[in-house]
Design a protein that fits this description.
The chain is of the alpha+beta class. The protein contains 7 helices and 10 strands. Helix 1 packs parallel to helix 4, helix 3 runs antiparallel to helix 4 and helix 4 packs parallel to helix 6. About 3% of the residues have low confidence.
Length: 313
Protein backbone atom coordinates (compact mmCIF):
# COMPACT_ATOMS: atom_id res chain seq x y z
CA UNK A 1 0.00 0.00 0.00
CA UNK A 2 1.32 3.41 -0.92
CA UNK A 3 2.01 5.91 1.82
CA UNK A 4 3.49 9.37 2.05
CA UNK A 5 3.85 12.54 4.06
CA UNK A 6 4.54 16.25 3.65
CA UNK A 7 6.39 18.96 5.50
CA UNK A 8 4.55 22.30 5.28
CA UNK A 9 6.36 25.50 6.26
CA UNK A 10 5.15 29.11 5.95
CA UNK A 11 7.79 31.64 4.83
CA UNK A 12 7.38 35.33 3.95
CA UNK A 13 3.90 35.27 2.43
CA UNK A 14 4.17 31.83 0.83
CA UNK A 15 4.02 28.23 1.95
CA UNK A 16 6.68 25.62 1.09
CA UNK A 17 5.59 22.01 0.74
CA UNK A 18 7.99 19.04 0.70
CA UNK A 19 5.98 15.90 -0.10
CA UNK A 20 7.45 12.38 -0.28
CA UNK A 21 5.86 9.06 -1.17
CA UNK A 22 6.79 5.38 -0.72
CA UNK A 23 5.61 2.26 -2.53
CA UNK A 24 3.95 4.41 -5.18
CA UNK A 25 2.93 2.21 -8.11
CA UNK A 26 3.14 3.43 -11.68
CA UNK A 27 -0.18 5.09 -12.65
CA UNK A 28 -0.58 2.82 -15.68
CA UNK A 29 -1.09 -0.09 -13.22
CA UNK A 30 -4.63 1.29 -12.78
CA UNK A 31 -5.28 1.44 -16.52
CA UNK A 32 -3.70 2.82 -19.65
CA UNK A 33 -5.83 5.95 -19.44
CA UNK A 34 -4.18 6.93 -16.12
CA UNK A 35 -1.10 8.93 -16.95
CA UNK A 36 0.35 10.45 -13.77
CA UNK A 37 -0.22 11.55 -10.17
CA UNK A 38 -1.02 15.18 -9.21
CA UNK A 39 -0.72 16.88 -5.82
CA UNK A 40 -3.63 19.26 -5.10
CA UNK A 41 -4.17 21.91 -2.43
CA UNK A 42 -7.84 22.22 -1.43
CA UNK A 43 -8.92 25.35 0.50
CA UNK A 44 -11.65 25.31 3.21
CA UNK A 45 -14.14 26.84 0.75
CA UNK A 46 -13.54 24.08 -1.82
CA UNK A 47 -11.07 25.83 -4.11
CA UNK A 48 -8.71 23.28 -5.69
CA UNK A 49 -5.27 24.30 -6.91
CA UNK A 50 -2.90 22.06 -8.86
CA UNK A 51 0.49 22.09 -7.09
CA UNK A 52 2.42 19.85 -9.44
CA UNK A 53 2.97 16.43 -11.00
CA UNK A 54 4.35 13.56 -8.94
CA UNK A 55 6.77 11.66 -11.16
CA UNK A 56 7.38 8.03 -10.36
CA UNK A 57 10.91 6.87 -11.23
CA UNK A 58 12.42 3.42 -11.56
CA UNK A 59 11.91 2.85 -7.83
CA UNK A 60 8.62 3.07 -5.95
CA UNK A 61 9.60 6.34 -4.29
CA UNK A 62 8.69 9.90 -5.36
CA UNK A 63 9.24 13.39 -4.02
CA UNK A 64 7.80 16.84 -4.86
CA UNK A 65 8.88 20.24 -3.54
CA UNK A 66 6.54 23.17 -4.38
CA UNK A 67 5.37 26.54 -3.04
CA UNK A 68 1.90 28.11 -2.91
CA UNK A 69 0.43 31.41 -1.78
CA UNK A 70 -2.41 29.63 0.04
CA UNK A 71 -2.31 29.82 3.82
CA UNK A 72 -4.97 27.26 4.76
CA UNK A 73 -5.48 24.13 2.71
CA UNK A 74 -5.49 20.37 2.63
CA UNK A 75 -3.44 18.07 0.39
CA UNK A 76 -4.75 15.28 -1.83
CA UNK A 77 -3.19 13.15 -4.56
CA UNK A 78 -5.17 12.15 -7.66
CA UNK A 79 -4.50 10.32 -10.88
CA UNK A 80 -4.64 12.68 -13.83
CA UNK A 81 -6.09 11.45 -17.08
CA UNK A 82 -8.07 12.67 -20.02
CA UNK A 83 -11.27 11.43 -18.36
CA UNK A 84 -10.61 13.69 -15.41
CA UNK A 85 -10.06 16.66 -17.71
CA UNK A 86 -13.28 15.85 -19.54
CA UNK A 87 -15.16 15.62 -16.25
CA UNK A 88 -13.74 18.94 -15.12
CA UNK A 89 -14.92 20.59 -18.34
CA UNK A 90 -18.39 19.05 -17.98
CA UNK A 91 -18.63 20.20 -14.37
CA UNK A 92 -17.68 23.73 -15.42
CA UNK A 93 -20.37 23.64 -18.10
CA UNK A 94 -22.97 22.52 -15.57
CA UNK A 95 -21.98 25.54 -13.44
CA UNK A 96 -22.98 27.78 -16.42
CA UNK A 97 -19.39 28.65 -17.31
CA UNK A 98 -20.48 29.06 -20.95
CA UNK A 99 -22.54 32.07 -19.81
CA UNK A 100 -20.47 33.54 -16.99
CA UNK A 101 -16.88 32.52 -17.88
CA UNK A 102 -16.88 31.73 -21.62
CA UNK A 103 -13.26 32.72 -22.27
CA UNK A 104 -11.83 30.54 -19.49
CA UNK A 105 -14.05 27.59 -20.43
CA UNK A 106 -13.04 27.91 -24.10
CA UNK A 107 -9.38 27.79 -23.05
CA UNK A 108 -10.01 24.60 -21.01
CA UNK A 109 -11.82 22.99 -23.95
CA UNK A 110 -8.94 23.89 -26.25
CA UNK A 111 -6.40 22.32 -23.84
CA UNK A 112 -8.56 19.19 -23.63
CA UNK A 113 -8.65 18.88 -27.43
CA UNK A 114 -4.87 19.31 -27.62
CA UNK A 115 -4.35 16.64 -24.92
CA UNK A 116 -6.62 14.23 -26.80
CA UNK A 117 -4.78 14.95 -30.03
CA UNK A 118 -1.41 14.41 -28.33
CA UNK A 119 -2.55 11.04 -27.01
CA UNK A 120 -3.96 10.03 -30.40
CA UNK A 121 -0.65 10.72 -32.13
CA UNK A 122 1.33 9.19 -29.23
CA UNK A 123 3.20 12.39 -28.47
CA UNK A 124 4.44 11.07 -25.14
CA UNK A 125 3.12 10.80 -21.60
CA UNK A 126 4.65 14.06 -20.40
CA UNK A 127 3.00 16.11 -23.13
CA UNK A 128 -0.41 14.46 -22.65
CA UNK A 129 -0.24 14.76 -18.86
CA UNK A 130 0.75 18.41 -18.99
CA UNK A 131 -2.08 19.33 -21.35
CA UNK A 132 -4.65 17.23 -19.45
CA UNK A 133 -3.57 18.71 -16.13
CA UNK A 134 -3.79 22.24 -17.56
CA UNK A 135 -7.24 21.48 -19.01
CA UNK A 136 -8.51 20.19 -15.65
CA UNK A 137 -7.10 23.15 -13.75
CA UNK A 138 -8.45 25.68 -16.27
CA UNK A 139 -11.87 24.02 -16.20
CA UNK A 140 -11.86 24.27 -12.41
CA UNK A 141 -10.97 27.95 -12.68
CA UNK A 142 -13.88 28.42 -15.10
CA UNK A 143 -16.25 26.70 -12.68
CA UNK A 144 -15.21 28.87 -9.73
CA UNK A 145 -15.30 32.02 -11.84
CA UNK A 146 -18.76 31.15 -13.13
CA UNK A 147 -20.07 30.62 -9.59
CA UNK A 148 -18.63 33.93 -8.41
CA UNK A 149 -19.94 35.89 -11.40
CA UNK A 150 -23.36 34.28 -11.12
CA UNK A 151 -23.55 35.28 -7.47
CA UNK A 152 -22.43 38.81 -8.33
CA UNK A 153 -25.03 39.01 -11.09
CA UNK A 154 -27.82 37.80 -8.81
CA UNK A 155 -26.73 40.26 -6.13
CA UNK A 156 -26.65 43.13 -8.63
CA UNK A 157 -30.09 42.13 -9.93
CA UNK A 158 -31.48 42.03 -6.38
CA UNK A 159 -30.01 45.48 -5.65
CA UNK A 160 -31.49 46.84 -8.89
CA UNK A 161 -34.92 45.47 -8.02
CA UNK A 162 -34.66 46.95 -4.53
CA UNK A 163 -33.66 50.32 -6.02
CA UNK A 164 -36.64 50.24 -8.40
CA UNK A 165 -38.96 49.39 -5.52
CA UNK A 166 -37.53 52.29 -3.49
CA UNK A 167 -37.99 54.66 -6.43
CA UNK A 168 -41.61 53.57 -6.91
CA UNK A 169 -42.29 53.95 -3.21
CA UNK A 170 -40.71 57.43 -3.20
CA UNK A 171 -42.81 58.51 -6.21
CA UNK A 172 -45.96 57.18 -4.54
CA UNK A 173 -45.16 59.07 -1.34
CA UNK A 174 -44.47 62.27 -3.30
CA UNK A 175 -47.74 61.91 -5.20
CA UNK A 176 -49.63 61.35 -1.95
CA UNK A 177 -48.03 64.41 -0.35
CA UNK A 178 -48.85 66.51 -3.42
CA UNK A 179 -52.47 65.34 -3.36
CA UNK A 180 -52.71 66.16 0.34
CA UNK A 181 -51.25 69.63 -0.24
CA UNK A 182 -53.67 70.29 -3.09
CA UNK A 183 -56.61 69.10 -1.01
CA UNK A 184 -55.53 71.34 1.87
CA UNK A 185 -55.19 74.33 -0.47
CA UNK A 186 -58.65 73.72 -1.95
CA UNK A 187 -60.15 73.43 1.53
CA UNK A 188 -58.49 76.69 2.55
CA UNK A 189 -59.81 78.42 -0.58
CA UNK A 190 -63.34 77.16 0.08
CA UNK A 191 -63.13 78.43 3.64
CA UNK A 192 -62.00 81.86 2.38
CA UNK A 193 -64.84 81.96 -0.11
CA UNK A 194 -67.36 80.89 2.52
CA UNK A 195 -66.14 83.54 4.96
CA UNK A 196 -66.13 86.24 2.29
CA UNK A 197 -69.62 85.27 1.17
CA UNK A 198 -70.94 85.35 4.74
CA UNK A 199 -69.35 88.76 5.26
CA UNK A 200 -70.79 90.05 1.98
CA UNK A 201 -74.24 88.76 2.88
CA UNK A 202 -74.06 90.43 6.27
CA UNK A 203 -72.99 93.71 4.69
CA UNK A 204 -75.74 93.44 2.09
CA UNK A 205 -78.33 92.78 4.80
CA UNK A 206 -77.10 95.76 6.81
CA UNK A 207 -77.17 97.99 3.74
CA UNK A 208 -80.69 96.86 2.85
CA UNK A 209 -81.92 97.56 6.37
CA UNK A 210 -80.34 101.01 6.27
CA UNK A 211 -81.89 101.69 2.88
CA UNK A 212 -85.38 100.78 4.15
CA UNK A 213 -85.02 103.20 7.06
CA UNK A 214 -83.73 106.04 4.84
CA UNK A 215 -86.09 108.56 3.12
CA UNK A 216 -87.25 107.61 -0.34
CA UNK A 217 -85.11 108.82 -3.18
CA UNK A 218 -86.63 110.56 -6.14
CA UNK A 219 -86.46 107.27 -8.04
CA UNK A 220 -88.70 105.59 -5.45
CA UNK A 221 -91.42 108.17 -5.73
CA UNK A 222 -94.16 107.48 -8.24
CA UNK A 223 -94.41 110.63 -10.32
CA UNK A 224 -96.21 111.65 -13.39
CA UNK A 225 -94.72 110.60 -16.70
CA UNK A 226 -93.56 114.11 -17.53
CA UNK A 227 -91.45 114.21 -14.32
CA UNK A 228 -89.78 110.73 -14.69
CA UNK A 229 -86.89 111.84 -16.85
CA UNK A 230 -85.33 114.30 -14.40
CA UNK A 231 -85.69 111.78 -11.59
CA UNK A 232 -83.99 109.10 -13.68
CA UNK A 233 -81.07 111.42 -14.43
CA UNK A 234 -80.76 112.28 -10.77
CA UNK A 235 -80.82 108.59 -9.80
CA UNK A 236 -78.32 107.79 -12.55
CA UNK A 237 -75.84 110.34 -11.17
CA UNK A 238 -76.40 109.08 -7.63
CA UNK A 239 -75.76 105.47 -8.58
CA UNK A 240 -72.74 106.45 -10.68
CA UNK A 241 -71.15 108.06 -7.64
CA UNK A 242 -71.97 105.10 -5.36
CA UNK A 243 -70.75 102.42 -7.78
CA UNK A 244 -67.59 104.30 -8.73
CA UNK A 245 -66.19 103.80 -5.20
CA UNK A 246 -66.29 99.99 -5.41
CA UNK A 247 -65.95 98.93 -9.08
CA UNK A 248 -65.00 100.32 -12.46
CA UNK A 249 -68.23 101.98 -13.82
CA UNK A 250 -69.08 103.69 -17.10
CA UNK A 251 -72.17 105.67 -18.15
CA UNK A 252 -73.28 104.23 -21.52
CA UNK A 253 -76.42 104.51 -23.68
CA UNK A 254 -77.48 101.13 -22.28
CA UNK A 255 -77.11 102.42 -18.72
CA UNK A 256 -74.48 102.20 -16.07
CA UNK A 257 -71.93 99.45 -16.85
CA UNK A 258 -69.89 97.91 -14.01
CA UNK A 259 -66.90 95.75 -14.93
CA UNK A 260 -65.50 92.81 -12.92
CA UNK A 261 -61.99 92.34 -14.30
CA UNK A 262 -60.12 89.12 -15.16
CA UNK A 263 -58.00 89.41 -12.01
CA UNK A 264 -61.15 89.39 -9.85
CA UNK A 265 -61.77 85.71 -10.70
CA UNK A 266 -60.10 82.46 -9.69
CA UNK A 267 -60.94 80.33 -12.69
CA UNK A 268 -64.72 80.59 -12.93
CA UNK A 269 -65.19 81.57 -9.30
CA UNK A 270 -65.32 85.10 -7.92
CA UNK A 271 -62.25 85.88 -5.81
CA UNK A 272 -63.04 86.20 -2.08
CA UNK A 273 -61.47 89.68 -2.16
CA UNK A 274 -64.18 90.92 -4.57
CA UNK A 275 -67.14 89.61 -2.57
CA UNK A 276 -67.28 92.75 -0.40
CA UNK A 277 -67.36 95.06 -3.44
CA UNK A 278 -70.11 93.06 -5.11
CA UNK A 279 -72.02 92.95 -1.83
CA UNK A 280 -72.04 96.77 -1.66
CA UNK A 281 -73.31 96.90 -5.24
CA UNK A 282 -76.06 94.42 -4.36
CA UNK A 283 -77.12 96.43 -1.31
CA UNK A 284 -77.47 99.57 -3.45
CA UNK A 285 -79.45 97.75 -6.12
CA UNK A 286 -81.79 96.18 -3.57
CA UNK A 287 -82.66 99.68 -2.38
CA UNK A 288 -84.02 100.37 -5.88
CA UNK A 289 -86.20 97.36 -6.79
CA UNK A 290 -87.52 99.05 -9.94
CA UNK A 291 -84.10 98.94 -11.61
CA UNK A 292 -83.33 96.37 -14.29
CA UNK A 293 -80.00 94.55 -13.86
CA UNK A 294 -78.29 92.53 -16.63
CA UNK A 295 -75.16 90.38 -16.01
CA UNK A 296 -73.07 89.52 -19.10
CA UNK A 297 -69.73 87.76 -19.59
CA UNK A 298 -67.19 88.89 -22.21
CA UNK A 299 -64.00 87.08 -21.17
CA UNK A 300 -62.99 83.42 -20.92
CA UNK A 301 -65.50 81.24 -19.07
CA UNK A 302 -68.06 84.03 -19.77
CA UNK A 303 -71.21 82.11 -18.86
CA UNK A 304 -69.72 80.48 -15.75
CA UNK A 305 -68.30 83.76 -14.48
CA UNK A 306 -71.53 85.64 -15.12
CA UNK A 307 -73.37 83.00 -13.09
CA UNK A 308 -70.78 83.35 -10.30
CA UNK A 309 -71.53 87.11 -10.16
CA UNK A 310 -75.27 86.42 -10.10
CA UNK A 311 -74.77 84.02 -7.19
CA UNK A 312 -73.54 86.90 -5.05
CA UNK A 313 -77.02 88.41 -5.36
Amino acid sequence: MSKGGATVESKEGQTEIDAHFDRLLAPTRFGREYLTYVLWAVTPDGLAKNLGEILVGSSDKARLRVTTDLQAFGLIVTLVELYEARNAVQIAQSAEAERYAPETLAKAQDLLRRAQHAQDRKAGVTSVVTLARQAAQTAEDARILAIQRKQDSELARAKEQAARADALRARAETAAQTAQSQAAAERALLEQERAAKQKAEAQAAAAAAAAQQAPQTPAQTRTAPDRDEPQKKELRLLLLGQFNTVLSVRDTPRGLTLTVTESDFQGTRVSPAVYASLARVVSVLRAHPDLTVEVDGHERFSSERAQAVRDVW
